[in-house]
Amino acid sequence: MDQIRLNVNGQDVALPGGFDLSKNLNSVIKSETGFKGTKLACSEGGCGACAVQVTSYNAATGAIERRSINSCLCPVGSLDGCVVTTSEGIGSSKQGFSQIQDRFAEYSASQCGFCTPGFVVATHHTLTKCQEKGQKPTEDILQKGLDGNLCRCTGYRPILDACKSLVSGVDMEDLGVRSCATPFKNSPAEQTDFSEDLKQYVKEKAAAPAHPVPPKSTGKLYLAPKSLPELFELLSEYAKQPEEFRVIAGNTGAGVYHDWPLERVLIDIKSIPDLAKIEYSKDGKELVFGANVSQTRAIEELQTPSQPEPFQRMADHLLRIAGTHVRSAATLGGNIALGKLRDLESDVITVFMAAGASVQVVCKTDSRWMLLEEILDPGSDLKLGKEWVITAIKLPVPQVNETFWSHKLSQRFWNAHAMINMAVWLRKEQPSLASSIRSRLGVEGVKDPAHRIAEVRVVIGSPRAELQGAWQGQRARAVEKALLRRVLDVDALIQALEALPQDLHPTPTPGVTSDFVSGAAEGLLLTALAPHVAQTPSAQGNLALQKLLGVHSMGEPPFPVTRHSFPDYSTIAAPIALPVEKDRVRLQISGEAVYVADVGVSTRELFAAPVESTCALAKLGKVDPAPALKLPGVVAFVGPDDIPKKGNPEVFGQILFAKDKVEYHGQPLGLIVAKSQVEAERGAQAVQVEYIQDANLGSPLLCIRDAIKAGSYYNPPMDLVTTIGDAKSAMTKAQYTITNARYKLPSQQHFYMEPQGALVLPDEAGTFTVTSSTQSLDAVQKAVAETLGIPWHKVTAVCRRVGGGFGGKATRPMPVAAACAVAAHKLGKQVRLSYNRNTDFRQNGGRSETEIEYSVGFDANGVISALDCKAWCLAGAFMDLAWNDLYGVMTGLDMVYELPNLHLEGHMCRTNLMPRSIVRGPGFLNSVMIMEQVVEHVAGYLGLDATLVRERNFMRPKDLPAHPYPAPPLPEPSTSALKPVIKADDQNCNGKAHHLDAHSDSSGTGHVNQGQELGEQGKKGGSDSLGQKKSDSTPDVVCGRFQFKEANGDEAEAAIISTGRDFPVNQYTLPQVWDGVKGQVDYAAKQKEVEEFNKSHAWLKRGVAVTPTRFDCAPPPINAAVSVYADGSVTVTHGGIECGQGLSTKVKQMAAFALGQVLPEEQRPFPMDMIHVNDTRTDIVPNAGPTWSSTSSEGCVAAIEQACAKICRRLQPHLQEKDSTWETWQATVAEVQDGSGVAPASVMLSAYGFYNGMERDKDGRTTKGSKSIKPLKYTSFGAACSEVEVDLLTGEKTILRSDLYFDCGRSLNPAVDIGQIEGAFIMGMGLCTMEEVLIDPKSGKLLSDSTWTYKIPTAADIPRNFNVTFLKDSPNIRSVMSSKASGEPSMMLSMSVLYALRRAVLAAKNSISEAAGTSCGAAAGSPALPQASKQGSATGHVCDDGESVGSKAELRRDVGQTVENDVASTKDQTRTSCVIDDGAGGNSFFVLEAPVTTCHGKEAMGQFSIVEMLKAAANKTVEDAAGLEYHSSGEWVVVH
Fold this sequence. Notes:
There is one protein chain. This protein is of the alpha+beta class. It is 27% helix and 20% strand. It contains 39 helices and 58 strands. A hairpin with a 6-residue loop joins strand 3 (51-57) and strand 4 (64-70). The radius of gyration is 33 Å and the shape is globular. The model is unreliable at 961-1051, 1415-1473 and 1517-1536 (pLDDT under 50).
């Protein structure tokens, strides 16, 4: 093509002829304009971080069209003559921020900030469309506008609040915490003008003659024909080389199929006007869409108010395809073509086929109309995109007697492809006048003809066995036959359901089982037909039948309701404890904030991409980069031989580049370096690698069971046995026991929005500057220095901010930076290594899966007396920090519960999978899941309310105020086997101290600052703390009140819990948060409400659960520097990393408070706008350690306080009081200057602060003299209550409400901490409900390596009622400003969702069992369900051989009685769900493992026959249904 021209944020951009126009818009904006707002988070169109608004001008009509698209997928050549608006174009620091950006800032709607520009563009575009339509924006419209955007940090609530604040007439009480109190100003969205000059350019381009067929070239070509004849000329030109070219339109397929576009020639048909028309046939009976009509335009046409209802319903379904940005670019023809060519899980095909669509296909010499099902027939030999192209799709316009229904089931409501979808179109006969009269007169044998089906189309889209698992939408001919010419009554419905299996040939695919497809299809068909059947005489009057016909289709989720409550401590030490705006948040929101990808962008830099192994375990033969080196733009291959001889080829125990063998699928073998990112990635795929299978290596170990069989374990830096008391002895004396039960905890990907990346710049004297997206600059500095074999001081590591970390950027950036440094060292040039989302997933395994086997002893009240547990944690081919998950279990398993006797064994399994690392709440999340499972199991065994059992087992430090919960009398005092150091005169506890500390490995990194520590173990004998003689069954040491002798001479009461953790008695706030959340939701009333709902609904069931949490914290030692300049302005450099958690904001608040101490009291605090937070740098604040465990903010704040205090002490003698804060400060600083402002000051105005990790005494000191007081450790408590709803027919779920009650001490910034808590909760909710890590059991390949296959929650998935309350009056006196951590502790609160789901699913199982006349444990068809036998374990995610960890299991054993049974195991593609029968007299226990995806949730409810239930109900009389009353709301309720 010739030169093209576009305008970006008012800046003209001209791309000359020869420019590669196939480059995506995102990369062009970065390289050609300098704008930073389009963030590259996935390169798949799956997250919206790169969204832009595109404005185009139609030269023929003069119309202006605006649409939002994903810049990562859009070829820049398709935007000739367009205006592109990024977040900077909406508002910026230079031109002023827009009201959207203001609201996002005010409502703390940005944390890490990487996704925020995309949300701003989405909101701006939604307001723009409303303005164009003359439509008032509503909260629901604005929420829907976010359907293509993902955020991992915020939990979406503040984003939705910011959007809602833009709605006219908003009630302030309905919004969350706001950082300022300026009045709202609603104004229309501002638009970028389309200049007359650009319009003229578009007109000239449109009038230009057609392009001649280009000469053959070996380079990359982007071609844009303007007519069909020109298109076919191009197709003819390349017909002999079909692999050379691809026809594209919206190019959104590149986000799904990662081999696209590898073709050298792209032919973009977007500019052909005939393919973009929307028109009606002359008789008005058909609506015709050009193939290039975008899905958005089609939806808008179908949604026109004058359109018949079936068209409206079609639009509702199509609105769930992907997100707004994808639908705006994706075309109808492209979707159908991908369904034909690539088995796309298409909703367009299902909906349009049911609507009777026909498709026009054209080649150079022919044109024909074909039914859509004919196009898709596997026998059809149309060569779409090579010889034939789709040009139009036509839909018959529905008539008054036609109805349409459709629905899809997916992993989440928005932006997820269908697992199965269905559409049903019906045309009913119009009754004749005579038949209508006869029917109304009740003539015997006459049915209302209006119910007779004259024509029917039922289409089901699903993976099909006959197509080897490929997805296809097909007509359900057997169902159609059962319905045709029938009155749609109960009999017809039953026959249709009975015919359905003939139309289904399901086969399992990753994350979707055959049973799910079959069951869901039955549920969907009932949902489609039941409303029709319910209106027939055969159904009316039969209450039981009406209840079964009361189906509900999940619609667009309503806008969530929010309430926040936190105590006001703002007057104590302002601006600390104020909800001040996040530091530089407006730069994040405008897109001006700099991340690694924005640093040092240069046309001379080089880009690297890893060459990855495609084998999990093999010897490595030849690695041949020659084919890659021949490709355009490729510069070099960097491999293991390029590591300097003095360098270390291993980074944190991992081989940097595999040389002799590969040990996991995706392991880096080297790098391809090229002139662009796309060229580097294309080159990396072209490298040829030879793998040699060696029998001596054995088979790859791909799961925990594989590792157990092979005896493949790591020896992590920790004790692998924890013993408290005598679990074995206590188990034998327990009234009841459950033994050898099993449970599995899932993995979870970090899904930080900014992928791993590094930029390395070689400098003089052999030095290197490394910019890294990392949580530990020390680790990056070490990795680069040791890999290159140079001293650390020659490496400067820098980081300004990180686009999300969650533990994944603690050590995992080390090999990224080291590899990039090797390339820079070899080539002597600046090299950038940025992982795409797929590579990031494949390299970083996330959370360790964990399997446990446990035995528990307890009494009739559910009080646990003994727990014996074994835990196996999965690590990858290299251990990294995966051992932290096991460490957290070994030292914190008790959580909030009293465990007087505990035996715990841990195992770290080595496998041939990508390295696992720490993920938010490592170990603690595992522990809370394990303990809640145990408590639930005990409660289920006894038939008790699990909430009551929780309360009876809460930790009870002795001599605390009266325990608020009714607890049964215990045979012996509440006990614990571990305690802290106690007074020397306490003769009752004479045990020898034994400590289990977290160990750092040789690299100096480790997740060790969670403050967990085992205390002393007492010896047998002696008396308990009450002076009573201990019985033989009493554990060695009792838990009670002890006196700590503090270094400052003060004495403080301390409570001790089972595993030895100690904390001041006044920090035991579990009773307050527990009672607080139960009172807030009126838990008892809520339980009754849920019970009544479940009785009155056949297919919807609800569950409610409240769960507690504990999190142990220890702010780490850290340093910081503060400098005051001659004009009085201040810079701060701290040792932490800003990851979105508000660390820099809290640091600024502390600096403002601490520097203000030198000022007169009435002039405090120091102005925050005169404080600048610098980048974190190893040459300024070295040895700072990693930022993790949610406590680095406190450490940095403490260090800043020390540095500021030093400066204040130096300035105090020179204080010059003036009329205002700033005048006083400037005058005081000037007093120590010589007047020139450039000569050295007489007082040192820079200072370092170092927080040593110690507690503070009553005067705020962490040392007394030269003696440290005591390491600071504290414990946070919280509780949450969640209510959920599940659909038996489909497996869909809704989180109706979640209330979080949390002890945050005195929050340093409530707005920041509430956001952290909500974000952590939603991340945990994702683990519980949808985030499923899928690995090929044969190859070890990660199958969930994209936004297409791995789903995190969207704004539509959060609780519809979402409330956060901070506990009042709980200062953490010995900590930093009395604060407590928030970001990780609240992750554990999400378990309330999991156990609410368990209750809802259990209610569903019970209802099915009642209908079948069986007990819950024997519900017909429950997967892996034992029948009469006493099943001994709950197992899931079994390996291929189906074997369990143990061969025998004994579940229930009363004293003197043992019931032992073989363990049943079931092979399944992903996992099995189990019901455990706990023996005679016990209650069956149902196990629900996370994640409860749509598929797994449906299967967990058990298989059931809708047909049999309908048949039984049809035979019931009105008397049989007594007790139900039909309300005008359309629901059945129980009448008492």
